[in-house]
TrEMBL record:
Superkingdom, taxonomy of origin: Bacteria
Location relative to the cell: Membrane
Keywords attached to this entry: Membrane, Transmembrane, Transmembrane helix
TM regions (residue ranges): 196-215
Name used for this protein in its record: Alginate biosynthesis protein Alg44
Main location: membrane
Protein species of origin: Halomonas nitroreducens
Region entry Disordered, spans: 1-48, 160-191
Keyword flag tRNA-binding: no
Gene Ontology molecular function, alphabetical: cyclic-di-GMP binding
Compositionally biased intervals (Polar residues): 177-187
Record InterPro entries: MFP, PilZ_domain
UniProt topology in membrane: Single-pass membrane protein
Biased composition (Basic and acidic residues): 1-13
Amino acid sequence: MTDYYADNHERSEPTLGGQRDAESAPQEGHQSGQRPQTPGVGIAHERRDERRYIRVARAFQVKMDDGTVFDGADLSQGGFAIRTERPIRTGAKIKASLLILAGGAELTIPVSAECRHCTATVQGQEHTAGFEITDISPGHLELLRRVVRASLSGREVDVEGLMAGEDPQTPRKRRTSTGMSAPQSAQRPPKPMGRYVALFMAFGVLALVAAATAYRNFMLIEPSFAAVTAPRIDIRAPGPGILQAHDLQAGDRVERDAKLTSVKNVDLESDLILAKAAQNYNSKLIENLQNNIDSGANQVSLANSAKPANGESVSFETVSPEIAQARIDQFETARDFQNSRITALEARQSQNEIYSPCNCLVAWALSSSDGTYINESEKIMTLIRTGENDIMVEALVHMDDIDNIDPNQKAYISLPHTSGPISARVRSVALDIERQPRAGFPSWVRQQQNVASVLLVPEKPLPADAVGTPVDVRFTEAPLIGTTAEWIWQGGRAVGQLFGGVIDLFTGDEQDAQNSGNLSQSG
């Protein structure tokens, strides 16, 4: 685009801070009778934020978006001037690129600018057009600033200096209103009040956590040991035999009446088979004798035993029908006995099929691999009830503190790796354990002397997988103060765990890197 040219322009010069430049100042001074000023007097002072208005004369070119290239006249952080044979229209908006030599390289700085003035030279053969930069990216603005400052310091900008982070300065003395130079006192930076506020807040939080920790450790009642427990159901073998395969493991859930496993009792199965064979044998004898009697025979062949002994063959004898009828009654009695024996053996065999008595969680299960043989009453599985109010916390409290604990008293439970306490109520205080066994509490801990068992019902249901987890319990007589202290202590512990995890993460990464380095060296 070439619409930035114009035919006529009014002559104007670039100004500094609303004042006319040094070329027009002597003329106005002669007209008004004032003494002409020396060069440089117009710049009374210079601050860092004013350097963008200081123009430097250096070699550079300006390439318009239509490809036209102009020679640069001067350059500043806020604008530039070019030399052109044709006048530029005031107010024309352009997009161009500043081409600046930096050692052996050429810097290209794309900008958007607007023409502020266009002045013809004395000969009238060319014009000087001044532009103000209206749009430039932050990165290119920083590059232009460093180029201008390098020129102000008398150095030639190069790529190596830009990459090294060199930022030359051009210090100048400020002048007073009388023309005498005087050092300007540096302004003292404001005090960082935010730091002091944050420091005092940190001290306050630390003191609050320390007070809560002291109150929690010295004023609240702490039991000797506490753990999450639940009612336990032990599944034992009804008789000796081989444990059949099952796929149950600790942590599996089972429904009520679901089959758990079975025990194969070979001796029981053999007795059942023999009992059924004896019953069938007696039934056949009774049937044969009754047929012979009904046929009207004078002599009836009769077996001398209702049950074969030791696998020997049974001998037969000939008797009268009256004697045969009496023996039928004996065989029927033996058959009835065998029926009862079969029923009893089948009942015993049905007990070898083990089913779940409740909706429970498997806490432990005996492995059934390689045909595991078990004896009668040997433990096969351990189930725990996970119903409502089944999962509780059991704590062992010393006898000296029992007087300060009452039913329905409030307590606080802290699970490992949690960020807040769980409120609970005391259900019962007993000198011995409950008759119903509970899972999750080691038996050797119960053997401790001078302690009482306290059951706590948490107000928030505990997860079933937490059974057997040791917990931290505190009993309080002042719920308001105890709750506040517990929450503050829990918050401090959570922050400590967070920082500890971060430190462990970095330490682990460094250790892994060191180990990998040692392995590479050894390899």
